[in-house]
Amino acid sequence: MTPGIPDPLTQDIRHLSTLLGDVVRRFAGQEAFDLEEEIRLASRELRREASVEDARELYARLDRLDVPSLRLLIRAFSLYFDLINLAEQQARVRALRARITERHPEPIGESPEAALRELQARGVSPDTIAEHLAEAMFVAVFTAHPSEARRRTILEKLTTIAEHLDRLEYVRLTPSEREISRSAIAQEVETFWLTDTIRNDRPSVLDEVRNGTEVVETTLFAVIPRVYRDLERAFVRVWPDWKGTIAPLLRFGSWIGGDRDGNPFVTHRVTADAMRLQQESILSHYLTNIDRLGARLSHSKQFLKLSPEFVESLRVDAECFPEIAACGGLEPFRDKCRTIAERLRRTRDWLHSLELRWSDRPAERPVGVLFGREDLRQPIAELAEELSRVGASDIAMGAVHDLLRLVEVFGVHLLTLDIRQHSLRHAQAVDEAFRKAGVHADYLNLSSDEKFDLLAQELSRSRPLIPTRLDMEPDNVEVIQTFRTVAAILEQQCPDAIDTYIISNTTEPAHLLEVLLLAREARLFQPEKGISRLQIVPLFEALEPLQTAVPIMQKLLALPVWQTHLKALNGVQEVMIGYSDSNKESGPLMSAWALYRAQCELTAMAKEYGITVQFFHGRGGAVGRGGGPANRAILAQPQGTVGGRLRITEQGEMIADRYGHPAIAERHLEQVLNAVLRSSFPDETQTRNPGWETIAGELAETARKAYRALIYDTPEFIRYFEQATPIAEISQVRIGSRPARRGSSIAGIEQLRAIPWVFSWMQSRHTLPGWYGIGSALKSFAENHPDGISTLRQMYASWPFWQTFIDNAQMILAKADMTIARLYADLVAEKEIAEAIFGRIEAEYRTSVEMICRITDQKTLLERVPVLAHSIRQRNPYVDPLSFIQLVILKRLRSGEGDREGLLTGVLESINGIAAGLKNTG
Questions:
Q1: Is residue 747 assigned to a domain?
Q2: Is 145 annotated as catalytic?
Q3: Last residue of some domain: 410, 445, 479?
Q4: pLDDT tens, 187-239?
Q5: 3-state class of 363 per DSSP?
């Protein structure tokens, strides 16, 4: 860096903040700009020497302002954060490119090539790795869980600014072209200021589907071919003589339009519409690409000696598509592209006219309509193979190969849609079906074992249980229609579209048999033909189900009909483990430990029964919901539990953060591949330490008791939570189609969804779900064991699970602020409750910080992660005013002062701003 010239990040921040300042002056006036600067400087000064008294003085200064002035400040600080986040994203891209350039030709850390070199050094052959990758699978599953607080409109504006920043930095522009890009950025910042930052209405489910497909269209379509190309090149760089192929192990899924647990707006018709929207999106993309490819493949027949097989394929094409044969056949590769394009068009037209009907005789598809991934992959593979055979290998291994990779990953359905429903809904549907069929009059009141035996008996028979015409309660009709809609989609539309059914709140084996029975009734399970179309996945969420997962699965695996079901799925049983509910119930350390133990025990059980367990990790964005870097999370899993196959949720703000910029998305996927490769071939010299696992179990139990003592065993805590956090107001934020609570209960932590639970603590700067109970556990262990600190340090240095857990905890502790949290405690009407509860929280916070610093041998949190520490320090002077303003507005709103609608809107705007500043919601 040249002395006296600011670094590029600082330059970007100054550029964007100057543009924002100009906009504030023009539209709000100099007085408003001066007020924003005054509050910002006061917050910065408060940061130098924090005290509750000084914080209350700043709060009192803001409390003298009217609502329009407060909302103007919220807008200024919130937009600043969105722009600063964008500048930091550009800095990440810049640093990544610099690392690649500096290390070239050596691979950068956490890349696939780095993993391959590590495996080579351990004597693993390329063929062994390639064979393993042929069975491996990593699936990122996008969910509509409402933790992305920003509107789609805002994200689009930020994307446009990012594109122009990229253009200014990496493209050689003329002075006039440079001015055009700078002007475009200024225009977006101006429009940004004049755009509502909060949604006027909740998005519909199909709005969420469109948002999900847009992420794929704008980023992943470009990134996926590059990721595979780099992986192939890495193999050749590490093993120059290797001539093998890399199987497509990356897949992408979605819950958007399929997750009906607690969301009454997801119906069977919505699921069908969601799948149709996805297919229309991917078919249109392929059509554009194949048309472009055809324009390039102008190879003349007179210069080619085509293989008999390719000539025969052209003849078959001509019979199916005579209008293409009329072109003359002089440019055979263009002809092949024309037939592929015509198939895509016919498929899209077929979708528009298709009316899904569940019946014994599915509608016949017209000639040329694509049905499934292989129908499209085969002609493109023929094209690539023939181009290579005639010597045109550059384009065969370039554009054609890239298109083939997209088809291998996205098929003709785009994202594989998961179906999720609560176990009680299945039980209720089975109960009514059994009553009407005369099987049993009161299924719901049977014991767990009685339900299991009755279901097993019914599944052993081949008689139909549910009539075609449904005369049942509407909720139960919807459950059955969901299965029938899935069957119709798979039979008539695309066999790759849906393959997973997840059961929320799985607590007994009967919950899985209920779904198998309902699947059989919809012809999704046909045991006599060896067909089972759905992977039936238990979701173990709370502590007890996690601890009893093995006996639940053992009872199923001993049942012949379940063995038949698994045999049809190649012996793979998927199990989903949820981070959110176990954390809310038992605290962060016990949650993490219960998930670790469940994976170990289920993997051991799978070996005993000769099956494969594939884990699906339901992780959120925040640490309190299992968040953190995905690659480190994979490596932190118990040894031998990944095996190259896993699925993981990508939720809310993490989708934009990880996939919003092509370079960052590519780096994220490369880090994931690195972790999958390394975890698939674990270093045998690193063995599990049973002693450390015993200690972790003891720590988890101590932490759970401390957590439960506050959250569940202190009657006054619920009043503190409801008044010292904006939980009531968060439930009114229109950031997702799903309600904030299960059922209609307005009281009780148990019924509250994990996202608003974590979101509210982030907003009030407590960040409690990510760390509470850890300090007590660590301190107790250190005091009761002479070598306690030394042992905990050894665990941190050598055990990935423990290191990842501690690092995530220190990150979320660093985002907490007890000075500001104390002001939120002032919102509690009963001061003695506020003092008592906050005193316990603050004491645990200080203990947790102290103990983690001792374990990690640091003087302060994040001392060894200076970039993250610097980012948090830089943000705080801008987050703090938003917190103070939120406090002022919450007080007025709850006391009934002033314009309720204006105050509520102000709170919602402040929620968005704080979320942007902390880079975490739920």
A1: yes
A2: yes
A3: 410
A4: 999 998 998 877 666 778 898 898 888 888 889 999 999 999 999 999 999 99
A5: coil
The catalytic residue among 268, 426, 565, 584 is 584
Crossing angle between the packed helical segments 510-521 and 423-437, to the nearest 10 degrees: 60
143's enclosing H/E stretch is strand 137-143
| Same domain (yes/no): 353, 435 | no
What is the 8-class DSSP label of residue 769?
G
Q: What is the CATH number of the domain that holds 303?
A: 1.20.1440.90
**Token digits for 46?**
């408060």
Indicate if 334 and 476 belong to the same structural domain: no
Q: What pLDDT, in 10s, does the model give residues 495-549?
A: 999 999 999 999 999 999 999 999 999 999 999 999 999 999 999 988 999 999 9
**Domain-embedded: residue 90:** no
Please tell me the total count of domains within the chain: 3
Number of H helices, E strands in the chain: 40, 10
445 shares a domain with 405? no
By DSSP bridging, strand 645-651 and strand 137-143 are parallel
CB 307 within 8 A of CB 389: yes
- The string of pLDDT tens digits covering residues 863-920 is 988 877 877 777 777 788 999 999 999 999 999 888 888 898 888 889 888 887 776 5
Annotated active-site residue in 15, 132, 145, 268: 145
Q: What is the mean pLDDT of the chain?
A: 89
pLDDT of 921: 46
Q: Are 218 and 665 in contact (CB under 8 A)?
A: no
325 pLDDT band, cuts 50/70/90, is low
The answer to whether residue 866 is domain-embedded is yes
**Do 362 and 471 have their domain in common?**
no
Per-residue pLDDT tens for 643-653? 888 899 987 66
3-state secondary structure of 308: helix
Q: How confident is the model at residue 327 (pLDDT cuts 50, 70, 90)?
A: low
554: alpha, beta or left, given left = phi > 0 and alpha = psi -120 to 50? alpha
Task: Residue 472: give the domain boundaries.
Answer: 417-569
3-state secondary structure of 541: coil
Query: Residue 323 has what pLDDT?
Result: 79
Q: Is residue 871 a part of any domain in this protein?
A: yes
* Residue-wise DSSP of 244-295: ------EEEEE-TTTB-TT-TT--HHHHHHHHHHHHHHHHHHHHHHHHHHHH
Do 519 and 383 sit in the same domain of this protein?
Answer: no
Scan for tokens 């050596």, then name that residue: 106
Same domain membership, residue 483 and residue 367: no
**Dihedral angle of Cα 547, 779, 922, 224, to the nearest 10 degrees:** -80
Instruction: Supply 805's token pair.
Output: 């857990």
Contact indicator for 876, 765 with CB cutoff of 8 Å: no
- One domain, residues 786 and 880: yes
Same domain, 440 and 375: no
